[in-house]
Amino acid sequence: MPFVQHGGRFCSWYTSDPLDQIPVTPASWGPPEQAEWPRYGECRSCREHGTVYEVPALAADVIDSAAAFTRWLREAISHHASRPGDPAFVGHRTEADVALMSWHGPIELIIFDGHGHAPSRVLNCRECRSASYPCRTLRMMAAPYRFDWLDHRTEWLP
Ligand SMILES: [Zn+2]
Ligand SMILES: [Zn+2]
Known about the structure:
The chain is α+β, with helices and mostly antiparallel strands.
């Protein structure tokens, strides 16, 4: 969804037409060699002039810590699966946890409150949507694995 910045206020503008995603109408379109999308013009939402706003990418530490959790959990599950024990139980447990991991995997979303605040990008749970990744369900599922797999972090506790 394209956004327009008017100083400290932000508009969103939506159309279902994928070829018509420019949220401002420029005063003139200029020659094609300047064919970056028009950056400045009349906002198609509120009709005031504004600048097209690109929502910043996710911070590197958000990506890194999500990746660290995913990696840790995958290793912990596969370590647990290889331990001797009740093979039927462990097999089903592993299958369930791998499925949970995938259902509650990370998804990048853009959050816009509609009250004019700047839109932001977040890494949330694909299933729980409003919860940041890893969500409580996933942290709860992961927690018992810390007893036989090192380097679990306290922030991953449910
Ligand atoms: Zn506007
Ligand atoms: Zn979730």
